[in-house]
């Protein structure tokens, strides 16, 4: 039985914003799921609906098969962690952790044990007597996480918990979240708009756009076989190269004519060709050619570089090992093996064809 199930969940705010549209989703027990999507795509609204902080316009949230409508937030066996940790300024770290378990009315011994365990797991022991204003941003976020974990909720909802931290701390806390999840079990649903964070964290990735669920699955599967053009373009740094064009007689020609490819097994007509930047080969005679492009700029990224190109008026990008041998203005051959070509419908839904 899945822990959390959303059935045809929709939310339209009184101002007419349709933030969540007919979302159905099942999260198996014990999974670390990460929801990702652009700003304004409805991620926070979905979390708030699950937590009971917003009322759904239609549809249901079920927990272990039981509908939660009418169950107030504090009666749901879940904890929610926000982007800005809301700690009680007049309580010490110990007091803040203890406050998390207060509503559970545990015996003194058990409450103390939960606080000590959360402090140990999150490395907060040296900070237990400090006040929130004496903590760094990362420490404060760890206390908020510890307070949520001390309750041992069966479902932990995290809304951009790492967004206010610098890159190094984000990486550290990301590792901690994974470790805590492995140590404590329970189901976690974490929201982020940072897709590289999502790829690194998730057992299960949930992609949402304009309030609509786009695809759910293991991150690598979504990266390698995106279900539609949105997922293809959203995941990846940079997102997948996408060329609109037309196919006929086993041959695709992109608008502008600079890119062509052989195709089999897809219908004729308007469609979109996709190739991941790391699979787009430059001046590589070993792979079938797709066409030609001109280098517009080169972005060094340490171990490799992103080479941006113009191919017949369409922009695209390729990854090239460092040191990068391409320069602005270079005219290069683009190529890719057949297995690295993705085909999508040209209509608004943009579903994967092959
Ligand atoms: N309380 C509200 N009243 C009216 N409209 C709202 C409210 N909260 C959110 N919205 C609208 O609903 C849509 C989804 O917002 P939501 O905050 O859920 O998106 P998000 O994906 O979490 O965005 P972000 O990544 O920027 O936090 C947006 O169009 C937003 O303007």
TrEMBL record:
Annotated ABC transporter domain ranges read: 4-235
| Enzyme class label | hydrolase
Q: What Gene3D superfamilies does the record tag this protein with? A: 2.40.50.100, P-loop containing nucleotide triphosphate hydrolases
Per UniProt, which keywords does this protein have?
Answer: ATP-binding, Cell membrane, Hydrolase, Membrane, Nucleotide-binding, Translocase, Transport
Entry EC number(s): 3.6.3.-
Q: Does the keyword Nucleotide-binding apply?
A: yes
Top-level taxonomic group:
Bacteria
Which Pfam family is one of those matched by this entry? TOBE_2
Q: Name one GO cellular component term.
A: ATP-binding cassette (ABC) transporter complex, substrate-binding subunit-containing
Q: Does the keyword Cytoplasm apply?
A: no
- Mind listing the GO molecular function terms for this protein? ABC-type transporter activity; ATP binding; ATP hydrolysis activity
The entry's protein name is Trehalose import ATP-binding protein SugC
**What organism is the protein native to?**
Posidoniimonas polymericola
